[in-house]
């Protein structure tokens, strides 16, 4: 970027003044010092963008006036690409000026009447991605918008140059491919007067879209609404969820989706945000990234239900993420809270974790988007040992009183086995493993329904003695432990924590290895067949680790474990381990709504967290 166009004299003059006075050379300024105001204090170090200094602009891609449609004039649903192409920055109009970054030129004197100016961005790859607007002087309140889109070839006349030019900058889209552009640009100001051509510039950067971690405040919990006729289990789950949320310290809003039959609210989108400084504090935009599952119809909810003022739905590009493969669900994307790695790399905004399935990796369209934001480059764990294969089935991150302010929680099979053995030794071996009532024929449910894909009738009469004598089951717990230990090693090689810092959440798993059929419609299978020599597992009973972190409160699946001395021993163990993190547990019954379908509370919900986050230094 240009660094030699401004004389030191002007730097001293304008910084001390704090205002923009007229100059004899071109001077363009943006909010380089990040106080939300453009003035003379922004002159110093304006040519290079760093984490500490440099102007920021947003992708202005919400739908402020709710003008974007989901259906065409014939009532037919728009394609994924048509649906996502509409936003406030898609046209030549500045529909949300409050989300555009300010910039301005200093008034120029000692120029002729023939002087002209051009304002444009470099590199050239930004021309179709970034918009520059000029606020035309003389516009009155109530008239059409005074903001005019500036083409690089547009020529500002001498009158405008003498008055100074007020500008607004925003982006049409997210930065999604580092090989094309990394989000940093130079806003150039060129003045031609006769044979003399002079320049100035200011460095700017598009705000990255960052995914939320569990230390950020929950504003809304999302789940599917369901109905009493077709989904009584979901209705029961929602009632339990409502009760749990009413008892947390800071009760978030609950939004129930009624535009889809999807019960897996976690999996069709990943919420994030982008932010920049403003004159009265942070200015932010919520960005909901649709999962890389092109045929997952529920993913359209990010546009049909959520897109609006300061809320953007983002559709990943074609080329990967075709079909509805579970590896590309939102449950396979989690975020480590902020830390500095053991090799000294700072992840000030946390780091994404994703699960691979042995030799199969998540869709490139999603990993490229995450990598293009720079700050949360993904760490890949191994999730191929699971049937659904999501990282949220075995690991999470909890607020904790230590030097990081958080710790790792990971599924542990040994503790619940020890609890069962203790119960057996104390004379409770004939106790049923699950306390779920009337499991053989629960009211309102039929196990002939194919949606109950992982229900096992063996559980109806299974005792502690029988389970602990099942060698195959015990071997599966060792298999699980091998992979959870492997993933924990990967995390502890990265994060400055020790084994003693880790919380181990009781969880048992069962083998559901199955030769999943290939699709006959040309789509890749949702669940893939087992890798030779491996197994595929899901939670044996509702798993607490798959829950919602809401500050010091935790909403978890009720485990329905064995009752010993009038106490569910698994429920007691779960309360104890989360209590070590100072968290209060609120249990929700999701046995029939989600557990028998292969997921738990976290899978069946999503959260919108506070977007007022300062990501720069």
Automatic annotation (TrEMBL):
<dbReference type="InterPro" id="IPR036556">
    <property type="entry name" value="PAD_central_sf"/>
</dbReference>
<protein>
    <submittedName>
        <fullName>Peptidylarginine deiminase</fullName>
    </submittedName>
</protein>
<dbReference type="InterPro" id="IPR004303">
    <property type="entry name" value="PAD"/>
</dbReference>
<dbReference type="GO" id="GO:0005737">
    <property type="term" value="C:cytoplasm"/>
</dbReference>
<dbReference type="InterPro" id="IPR013530">
    <property type="entry name" value="PAD_C"/>
</dbReference>
<dbReference type="GO" id="GO:0005509">
    <property type="term" value="F:calcium ion binding"/>
</dbReference>
<dbReference type="GO" id="GO:0004668">
    <property type="term" value="F:protein-arginine deiminase activity"/>
</dbReference>
<feature type="domain" description="Protein-arginine deiminase C-terminal">
    <location>
        <begin position="198"/>
        <end position="616"/>
    </location>
</feature>
<dbReference type="InterPro" id="IPR018247">
    <property type="entry name" value="EF_Hand_1_Ca_BS"/>
</dbReference>
<dbReference type="Pfam" id="PF03068">
    <property type="entry name" value="PAD"/>
</dbReference>
């Amino acid at each position: 970027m240009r660094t030699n166009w401004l004389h030191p004299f002007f730097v001293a003059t304008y910084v001390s003044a704090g205002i923009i006075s007229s100059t004899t050379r071109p001077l363009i300024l943006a909010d380089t010092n990040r106080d939300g105001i453009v003035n003379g204090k922004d002159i110093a170090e304006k040519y290079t963008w760093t984490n500490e200094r440099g102007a920021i602009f947003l992708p202005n891609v919400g739908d402020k006036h709710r003008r974007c449609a989901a259906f065409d004039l014939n009532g037919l649903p728009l394609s994924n690409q048509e649906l996502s192409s509409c936003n406030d920055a898609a046209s030549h109009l500045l529909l949300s000026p409050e989300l555009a970054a300010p910039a301005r030129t200093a008034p120029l004197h000692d120029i002729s009447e023939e002087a002209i100016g051009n304002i444009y961005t470099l590199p050239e790859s930004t021309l179709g991605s970034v918009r520059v607007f000029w606020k035309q002087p003389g516009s009155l309140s109530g008239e059409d918008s005074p903001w005019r889109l500036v083409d690089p070839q547009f020529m500002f006349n001498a009158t405008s140059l003498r008055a100074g030019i007020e500008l607004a900058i925003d982006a049409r889209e997210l930065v999604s491919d580092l090989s094309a552009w990394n989000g940093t640009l130079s806003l150039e100001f060129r003045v031609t007067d006769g044979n003399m051509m002079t320049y100035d510039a200011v460095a700017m950067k598009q705000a990255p879209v960052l995914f939320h971690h569990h230390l950020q405040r929950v504003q809304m919990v999302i789940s599917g609404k369901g109905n009493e006729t077709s989904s009584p289990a979901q209705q029961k789950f929602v009632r339990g969820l409502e009760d749990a949320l009413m008892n947390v310290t800071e009760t978030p809003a609950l939004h129930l989706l009624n535009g889809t039959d999807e019960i897996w609210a976690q999996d069709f989108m990943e919420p994030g945000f982008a932010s920049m400084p403003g004159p009265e504090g942070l200015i932010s935009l919520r960005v909901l990234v649709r999962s890389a599952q092109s045929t997952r119809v529920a993913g359209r909810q990010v546009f049909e239900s959520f897109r609006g003022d300061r809320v953007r739905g983002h559709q990943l590009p074609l080329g990967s993420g075709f079909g509805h493969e579970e590896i590309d669900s939102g449950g396979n994307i989690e975020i480590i809270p902020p830390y500095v790695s053991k090799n000294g790399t700072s992840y000030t905004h946390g780091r994404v974790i994703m699960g691979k399935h042995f030799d199969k990796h998540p869709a490139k369209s999603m990993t490229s988007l995450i990598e293009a934001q720079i700050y949360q480059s993904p760490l890949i764990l191994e999730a191929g040992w699971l049937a659904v294969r999501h990282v949220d089935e075995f690991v999470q991150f909890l607020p904790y009183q230590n030097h990081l302010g958080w710790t790792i929680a990971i599924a542990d099979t040994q503790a619940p086995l020890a609890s069962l053995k203790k119960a057996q030794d104390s004379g409770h071996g004939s106790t049923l493993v699950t306390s779920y009532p009337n499991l053989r024929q629960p009211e309102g449910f039929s196990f002939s329904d194919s949606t109950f894909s992982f229900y096992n009738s063996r559980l109806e009469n299974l005792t502690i003695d029988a389970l602990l004598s099942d060698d195959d089951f015990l071997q599966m717990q060792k298999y699980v432990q091998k992979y959870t230990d492997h993933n924990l090693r990967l995390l502890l090689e990265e994060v400055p924590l020790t084994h003693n810092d880790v919380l181990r959440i009781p969880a048992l798993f069962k083998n559901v290895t199955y030769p999943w059929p290939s699709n006959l419609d040309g789509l890749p299978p949702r669940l893939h067949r087992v890798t030779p020599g491996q197994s595929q597992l899901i939670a044996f009973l509702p798993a607490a680790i798959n829950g919602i972190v809401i500050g010091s409160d935790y909403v978890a699946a009720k485990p329905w474990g064995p009752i010993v001395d009038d106490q569910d021993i698994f429920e007691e163990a779960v309360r104890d381990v989360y209590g070590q993190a100072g968290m209060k547990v609120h249990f929700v019954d999701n046995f029939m709504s989600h557990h028998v379908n292969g997921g738990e509370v976290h899978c069946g919900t999503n959260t919108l967290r506070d977007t007022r986050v300062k990501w720069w230094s």
